Structures are given as C-alpha cells and as structure tokens.
Amino acid sequence: MSDPAVNVEKVRTTPLPNVSDISGRMFGEQELVNLTEVIQTGKLFRFGGKFVQQFEEDFAAMMGMKHAVAITSGTAAIHTALGALNCDVAQEMITTPITDMGTVAPILLQNCIPIFADLELDYFDLLPESIESRITEKTQAIIVVHLFGQPANMDAILALGKKYKIPVIEDCCQAYLAKYKGNLVGTMGAIGCFSLQQSKHMSSGDGGIIVTNDDELARRARLFADKGWPRGGDVRQYGFLGLNYRMNELTGAVAVAQVGKVEGIVNNRRRNAEAITERLSSIPGIITPKVREGCEHSWWLYPFMIDDDAFSLTPKEFAAAVSAQGVGVGHGYIGQPIYMCQILQEKATYGKSQCPFSCPHYGKELNYMPEDCPNTLEILRRLLILPCNELFTEKDIDDIVTAVTKVAKAHAK
Q1: b vs e for 52-91, b when ≥16 Cβ sit within 10 Å of the residue's Cβ?
Q2: Distances, alpha carbon 131 to alpha carbons 76, 134, 155, 356, 363, in Å
Q3: What is the crossing angle of helices 262-280 and 394-410, to 10°?
C-alpha cells in the first residue's frame, strides 16, 4: 500500500554507509600494518604470536577488568561463559526472546534449557518481574542481552541474581561501551560477552571476547576455549570437556587495531543517533527510542515505532514505503520470538533425541507458545529499524529524516 506521488522521485539513490563493506567500517592502515607483521613473522597461531594476548590485555584495560579471554565469535563467548560456570545438565537458563541464536545455542550445547522472560515495552530489554516469575529450583543463570546497545535494568536484575544466588551473564555483543549508571555493560555481571562479527561496533570479521573479575571463572574460561588443556607437564592432560575456540593471530591483529577505534566509533554513533532523534521527534506519529535514565546507549541499530492511529499504513507497510525512498528500514527485527524458531519448536537438537528437553534429569514437559511473552509480540509487531553508522554524514542523516518525513506526511490520517 503506497501513494504513487510519494514514489515520483526517491529521496536517495545511493546506499548509506554500510557495515557490510568499507563504506561503513573504520578499517585502515593500522590493521594492515599488524596483519603484515603477522604474515612476515609466520606466527599465525595465538601461542607463539603476540596480537591475541595484546588484544586481551588492551580490551581488559579498556573495560577496567582483571581478565579478558579472546575467542572465535560472540556465540563462542556465550558458550565459554557457560562452560566457565560449569552447570549440571538439564538446568534452566533465563534469557531474552529477542536475540540471535548465538545467545540461545550455547545453552543447548551445555545440555541446559533456555527459558524466555518477557521484555520491557519501552526499552526492549528483559523485564525484571518476568525474570523473577520464571525462576525455579533449576535456574542456574540469567543471560541479559543489552539489545541494540540499550543497557538493561541491571540494578533490578543483579538484585534478583543476588536474592536467588544465580549468576548473571551479560551479552554485550550489540553494546560496546554502553553505560548503566556510569558502569560499562559487561562489567557488572559475573562475565561480560562481546562479538567482533562484521556488523558490530568493532570488528575483525568474526571473533569474540569475554571479561571477568573472577579469577576462577577466567581460569576455566581459558581452559574451556582450549579443549580443557592447561598446556603444561610431560603428559598432555585435559581437565574437562572443552572446545577449540582459540582466536588466531590474524584476527587478533585486526582486533588490536579496532580497540583503539571503538570509543570514537561509539561516540560518532551517539552523535548521529541524537541528531536523528532530534529531527524525527518533531514528526507527528513517529515514536523515537527512549534511553534509560542514567544510561548511555551505544546504538548498534536505531529502533523506532509509529503510532498506529496516526497513519493509514501498518508498521510493516511504513517500513516498505520508507525503503522505497532509498533509505532501508526493517520491520520486526527477527520477525518472531526466538523461541518460535524451528530448533526450539521441534526440539531439533541432537539427532532425534530432543535432548536436553527429553533428559530424565529435567523431568518436565516444556513447550514454547507465542503467548508466552506478550510484550515481545507487541514489540515485534511495531518495531522499525534504521541503521546507525559511525560514518554517517550530515547529508546521510538529512536523507534518513527526509525519507521518513515524506512517508509520514503522505500517509497521515
């Protein structure tokens, strides 16, 4: 559904700066220098090289944390965090229904059960009251996702963790340098997890890193990411079951260069998001994103909504109309709660076993239903997504605002 007059001339005919290529990424000379050094030395393995260790040290220093462990992806970061916790099988872990499978798969890979709490309608983060309602005698972890760079309500969530003696893991893959009441996300829970995938604030194509102040969790995390091998003694021993999640020196070389850039990247995104918000907030019917009081958002993406009563378009139609103007707007982010995906609906895990759901140690019947998280359904129905990039120019921001304004005016009731 669209007004032909809106499409006479597109607002933009060239792509916006994009994280999928150099137009929207800050890769440059330092990455090349580091990569060249790795190739010239021939030391591509982290043990014997220097860049992965340097990345860990630099990242820990930036975060103000004692320990950092570099690994192969954000998914591996979550899995390594859970491996460090060393929970028994068939235990429950509470997390968010709007996230990537990278948050959920590690729970299943540790033979534990993902339990999904509902979300705050204003901030899209875990609703503390919903978390508490899901806690049982089997709950062994709360995995908080700071979605889109918005810090979650950590005071309330950490209080629940303390009350029930449940560790809190922070998934910060979309939230580099976001702050909750002056504290960097990733520094408040037991372990903070980060991704260096192509689209993240800082990137090495793929990669991940965790941070913690707990010496024992750090020790176990390093072992878990290196097959449980302490690398010492005359006989090769393996202390417990782990995986090969080691970061290599080529990835580390890029990551080291990116650590020095991420503060500027986040600052640029904040400035650009504030400019977009200031201008979009004056358009009747456009609901700009709220930032939690006392917090600093880091804007992985720019989420907004429309007032259903203000336009003759549905949110999905509104997104399509703005996209037709040359400014891409997504609708619904992941489209459905993550618990409605095939893996969880069919319990398609290990062959036909349906493990861990079928595990006799679990002893419960669990089926995920759409109505489990009503706030989540409403968020996904209404959620619209604009990009937010560190390399946006004033012209880029002007085009974004112009495209949204053009559609809003053409379809106002």
Answers
A1: bbbbbebbbebbebebbbbbbbbbbbbbbbbbbbebeebb
A2: 24, 5, 13, 21, 21
A3: 30
- Output the six-digit token pair for 261: 């850039």
Give the model confidence (pLDDT) of 43-85 as tens digits: 999 999 999 999 999 999 999 999 999 999 999 999 999 999 9
Q: How far apart (Å, rounded) are the C-alpha atoms in residues 98 and 143?
A: 12
Paired residues of 212 in beta bridges:
67
- Cα gap 130→151, rounded to integer Å: 17
Task: Report the distance separating Cα 312 and Cα 314, nearest Å.
Answer: 7
Specify whether the CB–CB gap between 186 and 241 falls below 8 A: no
| Residue 2 pLDDT greater than 70, yes or no | no
CATH number for the 29-260 domain, one of 3.40.50.10860, 3.40.640.10, 2.102.10.10, 2.60.40.10? 3.40.640.10
Question: Hey, what are 234's tokens?
Answer: 């005359």
Domain boundaries, given as residue ranges, for the chain = 4-11+263-334+376-410, 29-260
User: Alpha-carbon dihedral of residues 155, 161, 162, 163, nearest 10 degrees?
Assistant: 100
Nearest in space to 257 (alpha carbons), one of 40, 38, 47, 43: 38
Greatest CA separation found in the chain? 77
- Nearest CA to 201 among 144, 251, 267? 267
Contact 115, 97 (CB under 8 A): no
Q: How far, in Å, CA of 99 to CA of 376, rounded? A: 11
CA–CA dist 343, 368 (Å, integer): 11
Interatomic CA distance for residues 394 and 390, integer angstroms = 12
CATH classification code of 4-11+263-334+376-410: 3.90.1150.10
The burial class, CB within 10 Å (0-12 / 13-18 / 19+), for 361 is exposed
Buried b (16+ CB within 10 A) or exposed e, 1-17: eeeeebeeeebbeeebb
For 315-333, the pLDDT digits (tens) are 999 999 999 999 999 999 9
